[in-house]
Amino acid sequence: MLTPNNSPKVKRKGSVRRPRAGSHLPPFSPESHDAALYAIRQYLKGRNSYDTFPVSFRLIVLDSKLEVRKALQCLLNNGVVSAPLWNSERSCFAGMFTVSDIIHLIQFYYYKATSTSYDTVASDVEAFRLESLRDIEKELGVEEPPLLREHPSASLYDAAKLLIQTHARRVPLLDHDTETGHEIIVSVLTQYRLLKFIAINCGKEISQLHMPLRKLNIGTYVSPVPIEGQEPFYPIATASLSTPIFDLVHMFSQRGISAVPIVDEDGIVVNLYETVDVITLVRLGAYQSLDLTVSEALHQRSSDFPGVVICTASDSLGTLMQLIKKRRVHRLVVVEGDEEEKRGGKKGRLLGIITLSDVLRYIIGDVAIGSSLGESLERLTPSEEVTPPTPPPPPTLTEESAN
């Protein structure tokens, strides 16, 4: 019988360190980064817009004869921020109704309100018909949006080039009825949907996009040298919590931007005010409330606001694309991080802003070169070293609106 006193002692073998197995992943390098970009572009050339359609989605189309008040209510009820317009008299596509149009309307309303009562002008603005929106843009002197379109069977690469060349955030997809010859609005391809499609279907290539965002020159950054007569964060438009909302409306309209970082006296980013926040005020019928400060207006922001997405200049493009895959992101605010703080900076201070346009423009490449684009792609890496991703079955996405 074994007892604690007479049980035999077991000798343990000494531990032996086993060599670590070598990694099968290729090492990160500028060459692997460029090869991944090339593979993504080749993949997009072999896919069309139909491939990006979710299993279920809704498409809101507005008649151009509709009053702005009813059109806006339709957008708000369906949780979308844009919709294609349809000319029922000619049975053809008539452009897009977007948040920018509403911003222009509000600005027009304020200019007109200087010579008449607020109540009268509010009534006039809401009675405008959608077909009159272009006339308002001409009066304000802002650039008229291009009447762009693309066929759903065109390659995603061509659709992406069109978005970049026209500085548009979305492109309507139009087909033709073979019997009547009339146009058919099939869907709307947005920058977000296109980038999410890439993030879902090119995972291997995305993991190779390891280089920092600032080094790739993706986004707009604060000028390192202060320019006399310019704003402190030039060329980025900023505001403070005490800035009147109408000042931001003016920035949105004149600069063609959709968001403004809110900073404190030290330049620390405390929030972000977007064009969709203005729509919240309009939803409440608060045309006269645009003299509110940003601080006051933020208290009326929708409770489902996803928050401000920030990053640092040292974050990689691959990390950004993974974020787009996981959540709806339209822009990122770049702030100073640990690296900048070591060089005398201040953590959290505004450094830049990155939009989906910036990301898409980098991934697709320089499309302004025209016919030489194909040659520049071929020079990135030898074709025998690149294996484009195998086309997967159509992806399953969650339900999305057409905007």
What are the defining features of this structure?
single chain; 403 residues; alpha/beta; 3-stranded mixed beta sheet; 15 helices; 13 strands; 35% helix; 15% strand; disordered C terminus; CBS_dom; CBS_dom_sf
Could you give the count of β-strands?
A: 13
Query: Distance N terminus to C terminus?
Result: 80 Å
Which series of helices and strands comes N to C? HEEHEEHHHHEEHHEHEEHHEHEHEHHE
**Share in helix:** 25-40%
Give the biggest beta sheet.
4 strands, mixed
Structural description of this entry:
The structure is a single chain. By secondary structure, the chain is of the alpha/beta class. It is about 35% helix and about 15% strand. It contains 15 helices and 13 strands. The strands form five sheets. It has a four-stranded mixed beta sheet with strand order 7-12-11-10. It has a three-stranded mixed beta sheet with strand order 2-3-4. β5 (about 170-175) and β6 (about 185-190) form a beta hairpin. The longest helix is centred in the N-terminal third of the chain and has 16 residues, at about 30-45. The chain is flat, with a radius of gyration of 26 Å.
What can be said about this structure in brief?
This is CBS-domain-containing protein. By secondary structure, the chain is α/β, with parallel strands linked by helices.
Strand and helix layout:
Elements: H1 30-45, E1 57-58, E2 62-63, H2 68-78, E3 82-87, E4 92-98, H3 99-112, H4 118-127, H5 133-140, H6 156-165, E5 170-176, E6 183-190, H7 191-201, H8 203-207, E7 220-221, H9 245-255, E8 259-263, E9 269-274, H10 275-283, H11 294-298, E10 310-311, H12 317-326, E11 331-335, H13 338-342, E12 350-355, H14 356-364, H15 373-378, E13 400-401
Parallel strand pairs: 1-13, 2-3, 10-11
Antiparallel strand pairs: 3-4, 5-6, 7-12, 8-9, 11-12
Helix pairs in contact: 3-5, 3-9, 3-10, 6-14, 7-12
